[in-house]
Amino acid sequence: MVCLTIKARGLAAVSASAVNGGYKNMIDPKSKNAAARRKAFTLALLGGVCFADMALAQAAPAPAAEPEAVDEVIVTAFRKSLATALEVKRKDVRVSDGISSEDIGKFPSENIAEAIQRIPGVQISNINGRGSTISIRGLGPQYALTTVNGQAFKSSNFTDGFRYDVIQTELASGIQVYKSPTAEMDAGGLAGTVNIDTVHPFDVKGRQIILAGKLQKQDLVGGDPTGKYGLTYVDHFLDGKLGVFLGGGYQELKDRGDYLWMDRWTVSNNVYTPARLRYRRIDRETKRSMLNGALQFKPTSDLQIDLIGTYAEDKTTQHIHQQVFLFTTPSASNVVPVTVTNGTATKVQVNNFRLENNHQYENRPQSTGALTANVHYTGIENWDFKATGHYSRGSAKHNEEAAILGVNIPSATVDISNPKNIVFTTSTALTDTAQYNPSSLIRNTYPNGAFRTIDSYEDAAQFDAKRFLDWGVLESVQAGAKIRHEVLKRYVIRRDGQNTIPASYSPTMASSGLSITNFMDGEATLPAAWVSPNLDAYREALKAQGVTVYEAFDPAGSYRVERDLTSFYAMANLKGEVLSKTFRGNVGVRSESTDQTIDGYIGGAANPLNTEVKLVAGTYTAKKSYDNILPSANFSLDLTDNLLLRVAAAKVLVRPIIDSSNQLARTMTSTTDTSGVKVFTISTGQGNLDPMTANQLDLTLEWYYGQGNGLSAGYFSKKVKNGVYSQLSCPTAYEGVSLSKNTSGVCVAGNGDNYMITESLNDSKVVDIHGYEVNWQQSLDAWLPINGFGLIANYTHVNPAQSTTGFRLANLSEHTANGTLYWENQTFSARLSANYRSAYDQTSVESFFAGPLGHTVKSRTQLDLNLGYNFNEHLSFAFAAMNINNAQEEAYLGNSSRWQETSVTGPSYYLSFQYKM
């Protein structure tokens, strides 16, 4: 056996020397005498843990008789982070995968979501090309639980799923995705639990001060690059008994996304005919601030007190410029099919139709933060006690307003026969300001918008006790209790002006219009420039006329959800041998009790000052309580020194889900769309739904065959009960109004008003989600004449079989894969990464661009490039190019030849530095 002693300097690069002059290894092809020797390395886990006498190198031919001097083994940044994550995975009794930082404040990705997508089974969703939310094993963002240091981290907007793009990467020292829970973990992660570990001062040796900066630029965005700045300070006092960590950062970002899609279709005799084409350009600007701190105090060897705080603020504004071509307004007869192929009118002539020109401004400040106090006491022999107090809050304020102008277009042609090149022509130039003469506008509306305040917060107290027994296979037992109080609330104010702005003080496009150019960056043959309404000019016009817009409370969109969660658990930790094979494991059970109260408003008559909303006619309260018993078991069996079999089974749950379309409370809002049609958006609520549960099984075989090398394959199954599904319904009547579906499948009233009614139900069927994962991590030093090369790759298959009704897995890709080829030495580094996901379905609930009939997003692969240069031990630089192959989101409806959507976000780049004092 080899004895290696590693002394970790926090998360910095680690070097190690073989003490005994040689070790079992793979053949080094560069050795002068072809002796059997190989560079091996080991490194510290997060937390500065030192390992001794660990022989993990792969067995190989015996070394040559003539002993040689052994080279020093250097563990460098990216490879170090991979080896650390692999070692954490190996030692964990749960089924888990993770990522570790290369150094303090130096995470191997641009944001947290993009880092997590490298983990097997994890998919991300993008906004303007930037990773935002995640899905695990085919289950959407709301099915995953996110924690920081093991405690809840409330989302800044609970209706979107946890938004990872709000958090800067400097927050994390490591990220773990737990796919099989233990009884001590909070319930709520039906898909899995994502835990973000922050930097703790006791994990870092000595004093460190780190300065960091970054310049960033998206290819589609004009102007200068935006900046990012960060400062980190770690120190120790009182002879090492007090540790202090403080990190802060500020970042500015600009991005842009262009979207072209067919929003509506007319379906007749099984032929789909284009009914509404839309342009949408989103220019987004973000300013982020983050503060992260930790105090750790260890006055005695058996008492430690931690205080950890995190705060992240995101101030995002976006300008949305839209062109909405209403081919069937004023009449469906406007559209004349020219070519019909495979059930699609691929080319149409459109006559005398309406164009709605829309400029919408959104101001979306949001924040999320947490404060956690831990006390850990081991002063009683064979006992371990922990107590935790925790508070987390997320909040968001969404303010939006729009100006909508309507004009008539004499004629146009649309050809969608080639999805790679949509052809669109109009008889009137979209840049022609003369057609927007205020006196002749079909529609001239401002403002049209709302102000929404969204809050979620939680306070919790937890106590855990562990008793070490060493009774045969029973290593220890532990038990604990936790109480949590959670509040989710939403408050909505609508601001809607008159439908028509008088021509006498309406701003003119000729004098104030905004020029929009280069739409879709040349990806289609269409008018790529237009003139857009200027919101500043509309604000000034109303101000000059002394017009004040009435602020109307929206009772149907406002509510409060309060939950009291009480849990108890007991767990036995086991360790022993079976047939001379060492095993580790745990068996436990968790009891979860939920008391839920929903307070909302009952709408009455229409508000006379704003008919988009109703007056308050009363309030209502809905209560629901339920209890769940959640057993779990995790076992790890060492088949050999390097081969591990892992088996896990558990029952998991997620409480009724809240998203942007499906609320726990009953809600109804109304707006006037771009065609002047009133649209009622109604949710029947989820207050009476039962929680979703799943019985899950994981079986994994893991082979650790050398330092930093590993190969694993696993099977997983989830049998989901009470799956929540939402569906658009069209009853024959709603609140006395007769309803029916038109030829486009839209629910309409006799007066033309549209009704988007969403009802949420528990599925009575048990839905089986299963699949498998393969993960490979390999150094190529023994195979190539140049040291430093390696690769990581993973593939996940999720069974896509599901019923056409009931609970469905939207956003589910049957195949996902990630691969990174890297090379590094102490001075230079390079990484080329590929992320692939196969096609997936979306409805209007999951995507604004899906439309009432839904769509299928095509498979795509994104390539990212990272380059690094270490000038010296203090100063390093990095360059990254993201989406260098310009991967686009493309979608079709029904069959792959029927084009529905194309988007363009383009590549983005950054150049950064880090200086360590």
Automatic annotation (TrEMBL):
**Which Pfam families does UniProt cross-reference here?**
Plug (PF07715), TonB_dep_Rec_b-barrel (PF00593)
Entry annotated with the keyword Transport: yes
Q: Which UniProt keywords apply?
A: Cell outer membrane, Membrane, Receptor, TonB box, Transmembrane, Transmembrane beta strand, Transport
Where mainly located? Answer: membrane
Q: Where in the cell is it found?
A: Cell outer membrane
Gene3D superfamilies reported for this sequence: TonB-dependent receptor, beta-barrel domain (2.40.170.20), TonB-dependent receptor, plug domain (2.170.130.10)
The UniProt record lists the TonB-dependent receptor-like beta-barrel domain at 436-884
Which InterPro entries does the annotation name? Beta-barrel_TonB, Beta-barrel_TonB_sf, Plug_dom, Plug_dom_sf, TonB-dep_rcpt-like, TonB_rcpt_bac
What membrane topology does the annotation report for this chain? Multi-pass membrane protein
Domain of life where this protein originates: Bacteria
Residue limits of the TonB-dependent receptor plug domain?
Answer: 98-193
Q: Where does the record locate the signal sequence feature? A: none
Reply yes or no: does the keyword Transit peptide apply.
Answer: no
Sequence similarity: Belongs to the TonB-dependent receptor family.
What is the protein's name according to its record? TonB-dependent receptor
Native organism is Caulobacter segnis
